[in-house]
Design a protein that fits this description.
Elements (H helix, E strand, L loop, with lengths): L1 E2 L5 E2 L9 H16 L5 E5 L5 H9 L5 E5 L6 H9 L14 H7 L6 E5 L13 E6 L4 H11 L3 E9 L8 H14 L4 E2 L7 E4 L1
Parallel strand pairs: 3-4, 3-6, 4-5, 6-7
Antiparallel strand pairs: 1-2, 7-9, 8-9
Helix pairs in contact: 1-2, 5-6
Length: 202
Amino acid sequence: MTRSLSGRYTPLSLPPNIDYVRSSTLELCYQEIGRKKLTGSVAELGVYKGDFAKKINALFADRKFYLFDTFKGFNNADIALDQQNNYSTGAQNFSNTSIELVKSKMPHPDQCVFKKGFFPDTANDVTDLFCFVSIDTDLYKPVYEGLLFFYPKLVPGGYIFIHDFNNKFYKGAKEAVTNFCNEQGISYVPIADNWGTAIITK
């Protein structure tokens, strides 16, 4: 992270398909995690082709990095739930990816633990605590299940990013965050990145 003459933070380097606000906010949270000397692993639920995962792995070079994804697109039952509640059509196809493709992008692949399949079944053996988690699964149920699993395992001062919070095409993401936060009596902060990420901290 560098500071320009205007006083604004600018990322060291960004791939063209990573938006500035989301990536810069990740870097600032990374700095806070380091400043506070937080322990814990990092994770991403909903990896797709690994572009944001690459940024996470580059920053948290010395942390175990769990990557959870079906690597074959949405679960039909999750699509049906979104359609039933008019959250989304679930029509996008995210199956054109693979563990091999994602792993080839990682600057520190030795730190990566790939968990292929339907979440939370793929997390049954995961007992780590986490300092940073990205949830980018678009649909209501996997977002909600991700929060149920990761929030209790988030170390004090850690962060959870939930992508698509203000994406009108995937309204289930916002519904999942607001329902979970209301149930837990906690708050979130929305940021103005391309698809409206929400951030939960502890």
